[in-house]
């Protein structure tokens, strides 16, 4: 039997060990986190309150905003606590819990983006059947499928990882990530590493194929429309989704194009920072600024609040 001292805590090195730079990182992450939560909560509130935003598209957008809040909350507040307290340690159980929620929310987001692309396909390619096809029962079932798919992606590799023994406790990241944790293990991790790759590739390829096919049919349909005005209107309904998809998949592709070993950690940290803090902050603005109905709903709510404040 191997004799290893039991590692019960990991040490997160974070983004930098420079105290002054860490203050700037704290301010940046705190501001982006607050803006992200406020922006996504605003979208959730608007879709719940406004009767004009009760279609399938806004139901999916509401769930996407919830996932964005959940995803950034799983990563950013724990790191803000590490910076403010100076305590870089995290228990093994807490680390695995963080990985579970990060991967669950992240994978579910990918599947939801695929569902949202299908929703746009039905809306543009089959407009007369849209309400019938995308009824409330179908929408709820599609959301449930996204969450179940996310669970199926994370449970097998995480379940196997819980039995690993660890020889090293240092994680060169600002949150718990699978790759550095597996490197810290003194157990044989070959099978788990392959399973992680298979799950990641399956999620990425399956959802990307669904999105690409949906947009091939969408673009074909838009190009067949007789007037420029109709084409602009049809394109505007899916342009926000296309921007978010490009940002999400682009960051993943950029992260996993293998750079040199020297630069790999720094690049992964930088892209991860953008993914967990900047993207969730920008997405509400992307959907709001490019969507007339959401903007109109927001203005109506502000008018009501202004009227009530004057009344009382």
UniProtKB/TrEMBL annotation:
Annotated keywords: Cell membrane, G-protein coupled receptor, Membrane, Olfaction, Receptor, Sensory transduction, Transducer, Transmembrane, Transmembrane helix
Kindly give the InterPro entries that the UniProt entry links to this protein.
GPCR_Rhodpsn (IPR000276), GPCR_Rhodpsn_7TM (IPR017452), Olfact_rcpt (IPR000725), Olfact_rcpt_6C-like (IPR047132)
Give the molecular function GO annotations: G protein-coupled receptor activity; olfactory receptor activity
Write out the transmembrane intervals.
23-49, 56-79, 99-118, 138-155, 195-218, 238-257, 269-289
Please give the superkingdom of this protein's source. Answer: Eukaryota
Intracellular or extracellular location(s):
Cell membrane
Q: Name one GO cellular component term.
A: plasma membrane
Q: Keyword check for Transmembrane, yes or no.
A: yes
Q: How does it sit in the membrane?
A: Multi-pass membrane protein
What range(s) does the G-protein coupled receptors family 1 profile domain occupy? Answer: 39-287
- This protein's major location comes to membrane
Q: What does this protein do?
A: Putative odorant or sperm cell receptor.
Query: Family assignment?
Result: Belongs to the G-protein coupled receptor 1 family.
Q: What is this protein called?
A: Olfactory receptor
Source organism (scientific name): Ursus maritimus
The lineage, from the top, is: Eukaryota, Metazoa, Chordata, Craniata, Vertebrata
Q: Which gene encodes it?
A: LOC103678914
